[in-house]
Specification:
Blueprint lengths: L1 E3 L12 E2 L9 E5 L7 H10 L4 E5 L3 E5 L4 E6 L3 E5 L5 E2 L12 E2 L2 E5 L4 E3 L4 E3 L6 H4 L2
């Protein structure tokens, strides 16, 4: 869970601080008021530092329904942004001093709206017609 970090300093090493969250899903970091407050850089820093983590930016008037199968479905009128670092090829996060700007290659971004979903286990975007992985196999 992010507990401190100014939006404008999101891509400066060490300026975003985290702590243990609510424990809903291991390896998932949530950020709120995401688009409205320009918090994209905060999640990119967290995911660059922890590439196995998935960042979920939830905008105002939006939410996600956590399902037991490791997927989420977006509800509401806003957006949910997924930041996936599993394909990061390189970054300077280890080499720079605190406060230095972060460079990173191959961060995967997904923009979801009402009815769309995401499969955390398989790291897949789910369109409304296939937001239930069980339906794909039918």
């Amino acid at each position: 869970m992010i507990y401190e970090g100014k939006s404008e300093e999101g891509l400066l090493k060490g300026r975003v601080l985290t702590t243990s969250g609510f424990g809903f899903m291991e390896g998932i970091v949530f950020d709120t008021h995401f688009m409205t407050r320009g918090r994209f850089g905060r999640l990119v820093q967290i995911v660059t530092t922890n590439p196995t983590c998935i960042g979920v930016g939830i905008d105002e008037d939006s939410g996600v329904v956590l399902k037991g199968d490791g997927t989420v479905e977006v509800i509401g009128t806003g957006q949910v942004i997924i930041v996936d670092g599993s394909d990061i090829a390189q970054s300077n996060i280890i080499d720079i001093k605190p406060g230095g700007p972060i460079a990173v290659e191959n961060v995967r971004i997904h923009s979801l709206v009402n009815g769309y979903g995401y499969d955390f286990k398989n790291r897949r975007f789910l369109a409304p017609s296939n937001n239930n992985p069980e339906q794909i196999d039918d």
